[in-house]
Amino acid sequence: MKKLPSLLVANLIFFGFSCQEQLDPRVSARLNSHLPYLSFDSDDKFEAVTNMVAAMTDEELDVWEQEQGFLSYRSVFRQAMQEWQNVESPADLSKFLAKYDDIVTVVDSVLRPHIDIRLYQGIVNREGVYETNGFLHKIVGDEIMTVAKADAEKLNSISHNAELTPKESGVRAYRYRSRPVEKEARVNSTCTTHMTASYFHNESNCRHDRRVYMSARSYVVLSTNTTGDYRQPRVEIKVWGTLRTGTWCNWKQYSTTLAYRNVSFSIMAWADQGGIAIPQSYSRVLPDYAPAEDRWDLPWDQPIGDRVHNQVIYPSPFTNFHGEATSRGAHGVWVILDCL
């Protein structure tokens, strides 16, 4: 068995698997003949590995990918972010988008990944594909397209642009996320499934300006087998910072000191009672977290409630949320994300 980072070992013990059991997914046969994807041969393995990936730092994820011989969407996005700071002319922008338009879009000089949930970024390849139990899944916009492996060619023509997605025979579409709603910092508002607040520190009105962000979202992880689908609700809470660089003052994510505190929330999810999914309220209070080392982001991502078998469920809005976050670039200001 390959040597695993310490955090992975801790998670293996936490989720009740012995060190002798092989939980690594396979790097499988390739869609479009050039991009390997991860393949999970059981729902329990998929659940265990996704929980581990969600808990890993970017450095641990880098090691894990190298051990698997796998290049994730997350890694390609990180590379695009590094190259983005060198875009300083219309010609540079054209070349950049030609290289990465399947990964990102540019909105107000900010790179936005087409797949924006960190867990999914870590388990899919550049095409947004992963496999469970002989079924291929491709993330396209707000949906996951699923086909039997024998129908893999049907995924080849599906664009990352959700509005162009064909609903072919044999392709099932499932909405796993809702679209974001931007929130003003320090303002109570109605809860949704995806909320973001930020604080802007204007250093020079261009280079060296900083932002710190906090987001909270609910979404669903999907696995499929011969008996149907499993859908597991999850919550992702994330803190990250951005800075402006280059003569175009492009915003880029960067590694910096990050922290969150006073985070608590409630949300409706499901409890499995004899194979029937019963709605139930779940609440969490997170310990304050401020690692000493610089980090690309601070994610908290865990399953909420039970996974549901063969029952269609969608992300639930939070019923309440409060959290505070800061970065070194915020100079002591804490952004507050609140909803009721």
Number of strands: 19
SS class: alpha+beta
> How much strand content do the residues show?
35-45%
**Terminus-to-terminus distance:** 47 Å
Order of H and E elements: HEEHHHHEEHEEEHEEEEEEEEEEEE
Binned, the helix content reads 10-25%
Q: Low-confidence parts, pLDDT < 50 over ≥5 residues?
A: 1-21
What is the number of helices?
7
Radius of gyration: 20 Å
Q: What can be said about the biggest beta sheet?
A: 7 strands, mixed
Global outline: globular
User: Which whole number gives the mean pLDDT?
Assistant: 87
What's the number of structural domains? 2
Structural features, described:
With 340 residues, this protein is an alpha+beta fold. It folds into 2 domains: 6-141 and 143-175, no CATH class; 181-339, no CATH class. 19% of the residues lie in helices and 39% in strands. The protein is built from 7 helices and 19 strands. The protein is globular.
